Amino acid sequence: KEYSVKSIHGERLRKRTQQREFLVHWKGFNEFERDWELESNLSNCDKAIGEFRGRSELARARASKRKKDS
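RESULT FIELD:
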């Protein structure tokens, strides 16, 4: 059975294997049921990954601006 991704909430790199993983919120499941999935298992999730990375970049830019302003 193939599950659908609702959204991505995190990204990490496994140090030992150098494999990238994403914290996935699956459609039809509660938020506390999120899973870390290998990037290679998320071949049809480019849009969700792009949206997550866009949100992450925006948050970093806002934090950097606040730091400069203080």
